[in-house]
């Protein structure tokens, strides 16, 4: 998907005198995802699960294992089901809708939807279960698809929600009554709960006729870019297909892109290691007044639906064929579970869907502005609004060539709109676009105690917070830029043949597998495309002096973009390598601290202070084989000397030589604004 | 890799790392598990394959000899004891346990004229055993897979079944060959590994269930040069799943009958397969011998109960890929396994039908003036397909034998007591030396049972039968289980006794019973055997025939090789049975004892088919029990013969 996309603001028509109430009292006879002779309501579902052969057999065995009576265990299952199960209360839905719309208008939000895709999907409903798999960047994600379904008269999705909502007064219950079901974060140590949940999810998919929605990434990505998927929910939801209770399952990748993520500041602090406060209804209410602000647009983009059946048939090999006739199908239907091969396939699908979510990214003006501002910081040169708009124009062209979808109408107006939305972060100082530093933070002993990582200096945080926030808006676009950026970085380190280039590229990608999610199996294709892109766009070219080798090309502007885009990740990687080479063995927490400390003292790009980025790099190095991971009481790492040496020389050779002062003396950091903020 | 399943809860909501084919899946943040964790999970998965698994605690311990008599039948604490004054049955496991049996001595005296004052010959526990021939490397390999023992006693008690021949050798500790080791696999996967190892190292495997075989099928082959490993299935006794909706259960094949039935009943169900040996015999043994249970009229024989088997052969696992009520797909290979007598592979898992427990179980009995009228009654019941769960006809000798085991008190309703005796002998004019008894076991709703009883009585009346009371019925069925203990007592009193059975069509049955008994009598006469017992009963009925069960025993004093004599007479009886149109066996199987008639029973092409099955599934003859015609199999011979 690339080029121009048409999005419709589905909130706008409600912005009339009685718009909200009229719409929220409309006749409600939604389209179901399944055409069944008998429909199971929320209470029926619980009963089906509680009375299932699976639960019965499980209790039988569990009772023997634990010595607890079957009746008692059954009671426990019923309690679990009360905790888990979704409900359906039309009046609650209508009230929630009214509140939702009111808040959206307060926040001045536009919800832009790729309507053509929704209507196309709607026209195919009724045949088999549908899974909505959205990206997860904000708590707001929880309302959006539900509202979208209401808007388009589709049965409200059954949404897997975390227990943090469950414990919130009113909100937890209201969410349940509009289709949320609750899942615990871990199933370890509670086999009975796991069994109940597993069967509940399976039953909802096979019998409920509503789309099922969950976040593959499992948690909100604090970095605004894709997390590697978790496989549990997907495996549970696909059992009905493998057991052929249903003929197919349609998976819809959904990308939700925000002009402004509500949690951006919180996330920025989390990157640095300040733990997030617990969500409470009181906290939510308190934050309400802060909602009277401009939050910009949200883009919901539905990717092309995947038919699981077709996907598996296409990748069918001997193995899959065998697994269909597995010992599993000899079991009672209710007891059928995934075989190892099927589990592998599920993981494959999950990984693939994450890439489809990436491909459905809608590049917003905020992203574009963030890139331009970040570059401006890096070259230490503030730009006028005019220049910014020009740069953005150029950038749109670059990104579209790389396959991105960019949604813009009137560029100048849009940029001005975003300046309002992000006035806490960027400002026009004079006529120059500048970054607004954070309020100085008092690092009290109390705060220090709560810090997960290295104790950072207050002055570090003042600029680190806004720059990390800015990076959060650069991040969603990076998956387009990283492949050519790495190619360019390697070529910059010296002329190279295509083969050498590919080898170094692969090594780097592997080390960054966790920082930049991608599929290993498509890497060769990705490389070829990126290389072609670099050649076509004068980033690199065939060397004239050394035939058969590649060398740097003439397009300085594009080269600059590519060079700095990979800077934070490579720097973090280099820092991890340095730290580990020095200490040889380190436990996880200590390692991250040391990386943070080194990044602070080395005045690296502030994103290198991110604990998450560091953890990702450590995992990458483990994957590469440069570190050995040990797990006793806690996780620790040990270096593999020759491998880490290999990493070290590769990374240092390709690390972009960019020295920037990210302190307040950077001309792009506004010093005036801080006063106005105070 | 074993087809383990990913059901581990650990994997569900956490990221998993997967290093299969070096294909690395993605991992997130600190909470991830390492490769080795995942691998650990995977191997654990195969064990946890069934999270609905019901681990059954068996009544029978791994050291069988701790609970069971090593030298004979049944529990150690249960046996007939005979002394100067009293006869009694010890223990408290059976209805007659701990009771005096005042009429027994008289009966024994009458039939066998043995001197009961003579000290009994309870054998000494053996202390020397043939050395295990299992090479160390194989032993070590097997020990890695599962528990193994080369202990002499462990091997001796698994060298045999329960034929007279076996028990005689056992008491004398005179087996020409005993197994070299015993292994106790816990699941299908381990069996696969063991069979694999056998194929590689060329040793012999004997699947051993409950060791209740009465055909010689499980008996250790005497002329085997390769090491012999007994694969004791008793640790494979879990119920893997139980589907109360489909009325099916998947059970590991080593489960013992009474364990299976107890577990099912505890959950409101029954398999309903109750061969008289079901206290000790196993599911796998039933399958391998085509067993038949007392209540087959309601629940079916083993072949009707089995929906699916999973069998490890040296050529791989044979199992149907679908679990369906019926299949039209060429010959049913399940029937190659049913009756394979341990010669083609190991049955590891079986999917069985189960039924809800009947609300009412009632015994009944009917008394008939003679065998023929009882027989015609049974035939009529079968014609009308009105059989209750069990219906059996005992001949007069058996009836009187039952009477001999009458307890001192408490057997209130016994036939020849008091009023009833008066009614039956005086009013009805039945001759106590001719009358026969039918015992009934009825199951179902109260209505169904009442209805069945009414109909039985009505048909009985047509053949001169009269109701004999529920208690007599119950006693008849309990005796079934203690009769097996009689042989040990008999052996101690120099009497050899054994049973043999056949199936025959209705119209030939009466003649078959008459002729076979006559043949036994004349064989005894020819050998000057004065004291013996030949008796029979009709234990199962079908549309087109019935099962006849003979008991034969004689006093051995004066014979140097009584077992040999017994076998000659049984052989003659079998020849007679076959000449009368009866079969080689209704449910005990062929084993080694009845090989002689195998080919003529199944025809020459049938024999070739049997050897072809061997060639296909076990070409190297790992399962070298040599039952049926399998002793004619050697890899080369087959090639030239086929
Ligand atoms: C007192 C008494 C009463 C009996 N009553 C009946 C009766 O009513 N009905 C009836 O049908 N039989 C009866 N029998 C015979 C005997 O109990 C059955 O043949 C029974 O099925 C044997 O089961 P088992 O587990 O003891 O098998 P075993 O005696 O251990 O073995 C029998 C044969 O089956 C093979 N085998 C055992 N397990 C497996 C396995 N898992 N995979 C492959 N092969 C295997 C063995 O190798 C052997 O060839 C009776 C026997 C006795 C002694």
UniProtKB/TrEMBL annotation, chain A:
Record-linked InterPro entries: GPAT/DHAPAT, GPAT/DHAPAT_C, GPAT/DHAPAT_LPLAT, Plipid/glycerol_acylTrfase
Keyword Nucleotide-binding appears in the UniProt entry: no
CDD domains: LPLAT_DHAPAT-like
Compartments, record wording: Endomembrane system
GO molecular function: glycerol-3-phosphate O-acyltransferase activity; glycerone-phosphate O-acyltransferase activity
Topological type in the membrane: Peripheral membrane protein
Listed SUPFAM superfamilies: Glycerol-3-phosphate (1)-acyltransferase (SSF69593)
Gene Ontology biological process terms from the UniProt entry: ether lipid biosynthetic process; fatty acid metabolic process; phospholipid biosynthetic process; triglyceride biosynthetic process
Main location: membrane
All residue ranges annotated as the Phospholipid/glycerol acyltransferase domain in the record: 130-259
Gene Ontology cellular-component annotations: endomembrane system; mitochondrial membrane; peroxisomal membrane
Keyword line: Acyltransferase, Membrane, Transferase
Signal sequence extent: none
Family: Belongs to the GPAT/DAPAT family.
Name this protein carries in UniProt: Dihydroxyacetone phosphate acyltransferase
Species per Swiss-Prot/TrEMBL record: Bicyclus anynana (Squinting bush brown butterfly)
UniProtKB/TrEMBL annotation, chain B:
Region (Disordered): 1-43
Record keywords: FAD, Flavoprotein, Lipid biosynthesis, Lipid metabolism, Peroxisome, Transferase
Superkingdom to which the source organism belongs: Eukaryota
Active-site residue list: 549
EC number, as in UniProt: 2.5.1.26
Signal peptide: none
GO process annotations (BP): ether lipid biosynthetic process
Site-annotated residues for Important for enzyme activity: 392
Domain FAD-binding PCMH-type, first and last residues per copy: 175-357
InterPro entries in the record: Alkyl-DHAP_Synthase, FAD-bd_oxidored_4_C, FAD-bd_PCMH, FAD-bd_PCMH-like_sf, FAD-bd_PCMH_sub1, FAD-bd_PCMH_sub2, FAD-linked_Oxase-like_C, Oxid_FAD_bind_N
Family stated for the protein in its record: Belongs to the FAD-binding oxidoreductase/transferase type 4 family.
Cited Gene3D superfamilies: 3.30.160.650, 3.30.300.330, 3.30.465.10, 3.30.70.3450, Uridine Diphospho-n-acetylenolpyruvylglucosamine Reductase, domain 2, Vanillyl-alcohol Oxidase, Chain A, domain 4
PROSITE patterns referenced in this protein's UniProt entry, alphabetically: FAD_PCMH
Protein name: Alkylglycerone-phosphate synthase
Binding site for FAD: 207-213, 276-282, 289-292, 341-347
Cell compartment(s), UniProt: Peroxisome
Gene Ontology CC annotations of this record: peroxisome
Reported function: Catalyzes the exchange of an acyl for a long-chain alkyl group and the formation of the ether bond in the biosynthesis of ether phospholipids.
Quaternary organization: Homodimer.
Catalytic function, reaction form: a long chain fatty alcohol + a 1-acylglycerone 3-phosphate = a 1-O-alkylglycerone 3-phosphate + a long-chain fatty acid + H(+)
GO molecular function, one term: alkylglycerone-phosphate synthase activity
Pathway membership, UniProt: Glycerolipid metabolism; ether lipid biosynthesis
Cofactor: FAD
């Amino acid at each position: 998907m690339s080029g121009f996309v048409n999005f419709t603001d589905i909130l706008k028509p409600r912005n009339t005198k009685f718009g909200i109430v009229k719409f929220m009292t409309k006749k409600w006879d939604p389209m179901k995802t399944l055409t069944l002779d008998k429909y199971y309501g929320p209470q029926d579902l619980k009963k089906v699960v509680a009375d299932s052969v699976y639960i019965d057999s499980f209790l039988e065995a569990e009772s023997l294992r634990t010595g607890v009576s079957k009746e008692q265990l059954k009671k426990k299952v019923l309690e679990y089901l009360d905790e888990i199960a979704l409900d359906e209360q039309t009046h609650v839905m209508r009230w929630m809708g009214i509140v939702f719309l009111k808040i959206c208008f307060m926040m001045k939000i536009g919800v832009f939807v790729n309507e053509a895709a929704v209507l196309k999907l709607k026209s195919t409903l009724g045949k088999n279960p549908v899974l909505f798999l959205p990206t997860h960047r904000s708590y707001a994600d929880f309302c959006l698809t539900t509202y979208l379904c209401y808007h388009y008269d589709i049965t409200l999705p059954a949404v897997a929600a975390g227990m943090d909502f469950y414990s919130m007064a009113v909100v937890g219950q209201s969410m349940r009554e509009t289709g949320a079901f609750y899942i615990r974060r871990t199933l370890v140590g509670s086999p009975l709960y796991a069994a109940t949940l597993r069967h509940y999810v399976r039953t909802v998919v096979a019998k409920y006729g509503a789309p099922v929605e969950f976040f593959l990434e499992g948690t909100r990505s604090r970095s605004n870019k894709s997390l590697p998927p978790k496989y549990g929910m997907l495996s549970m939801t696909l059992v009905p297909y493998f057991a052929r209770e249903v003929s197919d399952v349609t998976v819809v990748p959904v990308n939700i892109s925000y002009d402004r993520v509500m949690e951006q500041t919180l996330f920025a602090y989390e990157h640095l290691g300040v733990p997030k406060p617990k969500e409470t209804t009181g906290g939510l209410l308190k934050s309400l007044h802060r909602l009277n602000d401009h939050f910009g647009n949200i883009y919901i983009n539905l990717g092309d639906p995947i038919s699981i059946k077709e996907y598996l048939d296409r990748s069918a090999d001997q193995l899959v064929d065998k697994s269909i006739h597995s010992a599993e199908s000899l079991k009672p239907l209710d007891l059928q579970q995934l075989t190892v091969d099927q589990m592998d396939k599920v993981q494959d699908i999950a990984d693939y869907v994450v890439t489809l979510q990436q491909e459905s990214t809608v590049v917003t003006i905020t992203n574009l502005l963030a890139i331009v501002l970040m570059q401006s910081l890096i070259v230490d040169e503030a730009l006028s609004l005019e220049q910014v708009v020009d740069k953005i124009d150029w950038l749109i062209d670059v990104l579209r060539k790389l396959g991105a979808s960019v949604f813009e109408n009137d560029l100048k107006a849009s940029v001005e709109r975003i300046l309002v939305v992000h006035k806490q972060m960027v400002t026009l100082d004079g006529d120059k676009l500048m970054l607004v530093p954070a309020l100085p933070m008092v690092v009290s002993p109390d705060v220090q105690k709560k810090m997960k990582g290295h104790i950072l200096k207050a002055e570090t945080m003042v600029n680190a917070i806004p720059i990390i926030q800015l990076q959060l808006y650069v991040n969603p676009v990076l998956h387009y830029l990283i492949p050519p950026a790495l190619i360019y970085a390697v070529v910059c380190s010296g002329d190279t043949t295509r083969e050498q280039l590919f080898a170094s590229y692969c090594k780097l990608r592997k080390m960054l597998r966790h920082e930049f999610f991608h599929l290993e199996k498509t890497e060769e294709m990705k490389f070829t495309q990126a290389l072609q892109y670099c050649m076509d766009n004068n980033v690199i070219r065939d060397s004239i002096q050394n035939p058969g080798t590649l060398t740097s090309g003439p397009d300085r502007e594009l080269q600059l973009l590519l060079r700095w885009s990979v800077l934070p990740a490579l720097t973090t990687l280099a820092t991890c390598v340095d730290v580990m080479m020095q200490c040889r063995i380190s436990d996880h927490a200590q390692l991250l601290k040391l990386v943070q400390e080194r990044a602070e003292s080395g005045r690296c790009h502030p994103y290198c202070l991110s604990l998450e980025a560091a953890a990702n790099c450590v995992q990458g190095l483990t994957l590469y084989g440069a570190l050995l991971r040990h797990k006793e009481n806690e996780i620790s790492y040990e270096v593999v000397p020759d491998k880490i040496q290999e990493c070290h020389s590769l990374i240092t050779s390709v690390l972009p030589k960019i020295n920037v002062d990210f302190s307040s003396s950077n001309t792009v950091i506004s010093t005036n604004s801080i006063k106005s903020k105070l | 890799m074993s087809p383990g399943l990913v059901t581990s809860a650990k994997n569900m909501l956490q990221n998993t790392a997967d290093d299969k084919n070096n294909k690395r899946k993605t991992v997130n943040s600190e909470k991830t598990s390492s490769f080795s964790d995942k691998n650990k999970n995977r191997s654990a998965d195969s064990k946890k394959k069934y999270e609905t698994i019901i681990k059954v605690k068996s009544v029978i311990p791994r050291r069988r000899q701790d609970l069971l008599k090593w030298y004979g039948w049944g529990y150690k604490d249960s046996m007939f004891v005979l002394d100067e004054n009293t006869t009694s049955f010890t223990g408290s496991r059976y209805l007659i346990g701990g009771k005096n049996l005042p009429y027994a001595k008289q009966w024994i005296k009458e039939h066998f004229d043995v001197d009961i004052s003579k000290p009994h010959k309870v054998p000494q526990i053996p202390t020397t055993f043939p050395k295990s021939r299992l090479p160390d490397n194989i032993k070590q390999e097997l020990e890695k897979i599962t528990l193994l023992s080369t202990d002499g006693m462990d091997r001796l008690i698994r060298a045999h079944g329960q034929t007279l021949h076996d028990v005689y050798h056992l008491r004398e500790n005179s087996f020409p060959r005993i197994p070299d080791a015993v292994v106790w696999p816990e699941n299908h996967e381990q069996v696969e590994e063991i069979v694999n190892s056998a194929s590689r190292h060329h040793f012999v495997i004997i699947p051993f269930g409950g060791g209740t075989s009465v055909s010689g099928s499980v008996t250790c082959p005497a002329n085997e040069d390769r090491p012999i490993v007994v694969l004791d299935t008793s640790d494979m006794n879990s119920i893997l799943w139980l589907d109360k909706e489909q009325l099916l259960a998947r059970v590991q094949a080593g489960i013992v009958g009474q364990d299976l039935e107890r577990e099912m009943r505890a959950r409101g169900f029954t398999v309903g397969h109750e061969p008289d040996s079901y206290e000790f015999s196993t599911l796998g043994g039933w399958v391998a011998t085509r067993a038949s249970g007392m209540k087959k009229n309601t629940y079916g024989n083993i072949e009707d109960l089995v929906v699916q088997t999973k069998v490890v052969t040296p050529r791989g696992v044979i199992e149907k890929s679908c679990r369906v009520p019926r299949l039209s797909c060429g010959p049913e290979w399940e029937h190659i396994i049913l009756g394979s007598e341990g010669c083609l592979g190991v049955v590891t898992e079986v999917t069985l039908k189960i039924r809800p427990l009947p609300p009412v179980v009632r015994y009944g009995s009917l008394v008939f003036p003679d065998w023929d009228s009882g027989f015609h009654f049974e035939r009529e019941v079968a014609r009308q397909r009105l059989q209750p769960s069990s219906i059996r006809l005992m001949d007069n000798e058996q009836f009187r034998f039952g009477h001999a085991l009458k307890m001192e008190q408490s057997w209130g309703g016994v036939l020849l007591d008091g009023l009833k005796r008066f009614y039956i002998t005086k009013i009805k004019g039945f001759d106590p030396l001719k009358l026969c008894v039918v015992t009934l076991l009825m199951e179902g709703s109260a209505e169904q049972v009442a209805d069945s009883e009414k109909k039985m009585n009505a048909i009985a009346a047509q053949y001169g039968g009269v109701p004999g009371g529920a208690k007599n019925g119950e006693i008849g069925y309990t005796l079934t289980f203690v009769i097996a203990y009689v042989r040990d007592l008999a052996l101690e009193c120099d009497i050899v006794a054994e049973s043999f059975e056949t199936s025959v069509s209705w119209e030939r049955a009466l003649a078959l019973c008459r002729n076979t008994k006559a043949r036994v009598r004349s064989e005894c006469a020819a050998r000057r055997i004065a004291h013996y017992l030949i008796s029979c009963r009709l234990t199962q009925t079908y549309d087109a025939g019935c099962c006849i069960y003979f008991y034969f025993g004689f006093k051995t004093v004066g014979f140097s090789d009584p077992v040999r004599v017994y076998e000659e007479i049984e052989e003659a009886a079998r020849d007679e049975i076959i000449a009368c149109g009866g079969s080689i066996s209704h449910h005990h199987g062929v084993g080694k004892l009845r090989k002689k008639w195998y080919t003529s029973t199944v025809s020459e092409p049938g024999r070739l088919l049997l050897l072809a099955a061997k060639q296909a599934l076990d070409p190297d003859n790992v399962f070298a029990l040599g039952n049926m015609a399998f002793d004619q199999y050697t890899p080369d011979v087959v090639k030239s013969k086929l």
